[in-house]
């Protein structure tokens, strides 16, 4: 599980600047669940082989009086509760304030590992200004400049030190369970679906451990295929039924997606595709996971709503075109068989082996059928291709002047590779590698 780092501090100390800096790696994804968590932003960051999630909070004023300020403080407290580590940001130029003391007192009582980032420290090396922050009782301040990118790496190293390298889901053995995450915003029907599944006789669920921070997975079997359902909803077993304790947790959702082989993205037919659905879908795409989209509550919509829904999916989820789209009713147990089939196919697609000779032949046929366009003096020459990775599958094309291959042409190649290897439900990445 990716560790979660919360950034807290009073307004204007540079939290957002630090957030942008931390999530600025090539892999950065900013999942901004607007509306749901007004003042919290979630982003992905990476330091070497360690991936982490960062939460940016609004301003944090522990004794906030009312209204918006109070709401911001509530958001910050929530972020601290969700986090594995806290970076407390202070402003060296402004110096220590009473508010900083209040926040420090709150953080010391939180039981979380807290690191002090003394921001805006560019050009202030060895200055006495840093020393006063020892008073906060948080430990040695890390002098950083978020704006100029100074001291960030050593701060991160300290923060991430207790967490090991992340274990990317390993290449699964043939009989290894398929790790499945059911993702979707609140009320789309995740708990209902999971209970429907686990209530089926053929499906053997085992008992659950019950810790809060650890990922909870429910192992089960269906038609001889083993699955592991990764909890996204804070599920607890209550008798024969699973109950969601928290209604929705962004962190759990992001972690489950990162940890899954296949994500089942659930939509609510009665609501259409909302902004939040699109954010979650975008995150799934960026994570490179195999994905199946299921529109739930199909029993509750009329023909007109179905048409609207089809249009909103086309518009807002166009980037998930590769994912199979199914229509189900969790309460009526309708359409569930095809979901399992799609999940298994998506998983198999994500792990398909594509031998070099076959890829190279496909490439040559594609070029013979339609050659890439000349760009200025350059005509890209595609020579051969090999598989650069699985889950998601990556095809590396070798040749010359490949930087001139257009996106349109890449999509053309992608289409031909997909159809040959029958890839559905998985992203396919194509990388161009020019030789000399
Ligand atoms: P937040 O309210 O804590 O999220 O603070 P912001 O990230 O919005 O930053 C507040 C102000 O401080 C902005 O004007 C930033 O440009 C500035 N700032 C942020 N980091 C640095 C820094 O490292 N050095 C300096 N000099 N200014 C900074
Ligand atoms: P979650 O927040 O995603 O776990 O959603 P829940 O499983 O708690 O479901 C939210 C609401 O949608 C509940 O009132 C369910 O009874 C209802 N619901 C779930 N699945 C269906 C369905 O297939 N059809 C209809 N009509 N309602 C459903």
Automatic annotation (TrEMBL):
Protein name: GTPase Der
Function: GTPase that plays an essential role in the late steps of ribosome biogenesis.
Origin superkingdom: Bacteria
GO biological process: ribosome biogenesis
Binding site for GTP 1: 9-16, 56-60, 119-122
Species lineage: Bacteria, Pseudomonadati, Pseudomonadota, Betaproteobacteria, Burkholderiales
Assembly description: Associates with the 50S ribosomal subunit.
Domain called EngA-type G: residue spans: 3-167, 178-351
Family: Belongs to the TRAFAC class TrmE-Era-EngA-EngB-Septin-like GTPase superfamily. EngA (Der) GTPase family.
Matching InterPro entries: AAA+_ATPase, G_ENGA, GTP-bd, GTPase_Der, KH_dom-like, KH_dom-like_a/b, P-loop_NTPase, Small_GTP-bd
Ligand binding (GTP 2): 184-191, 231-235, 296-299
Sample GO molecular function, one term: ribosome binding
PROSITE patterns named in the record: G_ENGA
UniProt keyword list: GTP-binding, Nucleotide-binding, Repeat, Ribosome biogenesis
SUPFAM superfamilies assigned: P-loop containing nucleoside triphosphate hydrolases
Organism this protein belongs to: Piscinibacter sakaiensis (Ideonella sakaiensis)
